Amino acid sequence: MHGIWEEFLTIVKQEAGSHIVETWFKAVSFEQWEARTNTAVLMMPNIFVSNWIQKHYITLIKTHLSRLLHTTSIKIFFTCKNDNDSYKHTIRPASLIPNKSFIALEKSDISLVKSTQSAPLTTIEKKSTSLTQLPRKTTRLETTKLNERYTFNTFVVGPTNELAHAAAITVSHNIGKVYNPLFIYGGTGLGKTHLLHAIGNELKSTNPEATICYATSDTFVNEFINAIKSDKTRNFREKYQKVDLLLLDDIQFFSHKEQTQETFFHIFDALHGRQKQVVFSSDTLPQNILGLQGRLQSRLQCGLVADVQMPTLEMKIAILKKKAQAQGLTLEHDILRSIAEQPAKSIRELEGYLMRLAAFSAISHQPINIDTIKKIIVNTHQQRPQTITIDAIIKSVARHFNIAIADIKSKQRTKQIVLCRQIACYLMKKHTPHSLQAIGETLGGKDHTTIIHALTKIEKLIHQDQILADKIELIQKHFYQN
Ligand code: ADP
Ligand code: MG
Fold first, then answer.
1. Which residues line ligand 1 (CB under 6 A)?
2. How far is the CA of 192 from the centre of ligand 1 (A)?
3. Predicted TM-score of the model (pTM)
4. For 390-422, how does the pLDDT look when each residue is reduced to its tens digit (9 = 90+)?
5. Whose CA is nearest to atom 20 of ligand 1?
6. CA dihedral 285, 286, 292, 293 (to 10 degrees)
7. How far apart are CA 172 and CA 128, in angstroms?
8. 204-224 residue pLDDT tens
C-alpha cells in the first residue's frame, strides 16, 4: 500500500504540482485496501483537509488509485485521525457508517461530494470554539478596533481566494484547533486584511468574551520599541500572550527587526502552546520574507499557508456590487461589468474607480453610465496618478478644513490643527505604504507614539462621530478628483 501511495503521490505531483502534494497529501495516508469490496480507506489529518480533498481531488484520486490498484469501480472511504477530538464531523448522517466517521464516496455518492461543496465548512462544529476554554473576563486591549464592515458576509469567494476563505472560516470556528497558525499571503489590496478582520468579527459574534487582538506588524514593532524605551517589555509580552486570537497583519514588516522577532517568537510559542490562535497576513510566502529568523520562518509555515490572488471577472463584478450596495448605490450589471473590466492591479484599485464614479455622480448630478465610466476611468488611466501621495493627502485635508498646508506640517497645537494633522496621519497610513516614521517626519517631526496615538484616536472617532466619519469619507473620495 505504501508503494502504491508513493506512486500515486508522484502522479499528483506531475499533474497538480508539488505544492498540492505538500499542502494536501503529505499528511494523508493510505490505511487500508480491501480487494474483495474494492474499498480504499484514506486517513486524513483532520476534517478540513478531508473536505478540501473531497471537493477538489476526488476525481484525481479515483482515476489514479483505481488504475494503480487494477480495478474499475473503486470506493474511497475517508477517515480522520482526530475523529474523537473536540471537533467533530457533522456530515450528513446518511453518509456515516455507524461508529465510524467514514464518508463513502462511490459513484452514486458523487452528489454527496457536490453537496459538501456548497458548505464544506459547516462540517466542523461551530460550537467547538469552547466557551469554557476562553476566559470569561476580558481585559480590553488597546489595539486597533476590528472593522465591522470586514466580515465573511461582505467577502466574495471564488477560485482565487477559496482556500484562504475556507481556512479563515474554519479557524474562526475552531480557535487554536485546526490550523495554527493560519498564514494568508498575497499581493496588496487583495483581501488579506479583510479576512483577518472577518475572523475576528466572527469570533466576536460567536464568543463576545474572547480576547481578540488585531495589530498591524508596523504597530507591533513600534509598540515594542516604545516598550523597550519605557522599560515595559514585560507588560508588552503579557498583553499579547493573554489573547485568545492574535491577528497580525503584514508580517513582512518584521523583516530585519531582530529584537522584535526575538520577542515575538516567545509570544508565539506561548500562544501556540496554550492552543490560542494566531493568524498572519503577508505580501509574500514565509520563506520569501527577507531578514526573518529561520526558526520564526518555520513557525509561520507550520500551520496552513493559503494565498489570495487577483479575482476573476465574475468575482470582481460581485465585489463591486457589494461595495456599491454598501454605499447605497444600485448599479446595473452592465455598468458593474464595465468597471470590473478596467485594468486594475488590486481590488482596492477597483474600489477606487467606484468611489471616483460615485463622487463624480454625486457632485455633477449625472448618472453612472458607460459614458461616465469612459470619462472618469478609461480616459484618465494615463493622466491620473494611480497612487495617492502624502502631499495629495495633506492638500486634500487642508482644503477640506480650510486651513493652510503649512499649518498641518507645523508644530502648532491648536485643537483644529491637531485634529486635521491626525486625520492626515490616518489617511496616510491607510492610503500610502509609508512607515509611521516617514509619516511622522512629514507632519512636523512627530515620533511613533504620537502617530500611533493619532491613528487610534481617529479610528475611535470614526466609530463615535458620524459627522466626522462622513467628512473623512468625503476627503477620500476627493483624492480621486485631484
Ligand atoms: P490587503 O490587506 O490584501 O492589502 P484588503 O483586505 O485591505 O487588502 O482589501 C482591499 C479592499 O478590497 C478592501 O476594501 C476589501 O474589503 C476589498 N476586498 C478584497 N477582497 C475582497 C473580496 N473577496 N470580497 C469583497 N471585498 C474584498
Ligand atoms: Mg492589508
1. 150, 154-156, 161, 186, 188-194, 319, 322, 347-348, 351
2. 7
3. 0.67
4. 888 998 899 888 888 999 988 888 999 999 999
5. 191
6. -160
7. 10
8. 999 999 999 999 998 999 999
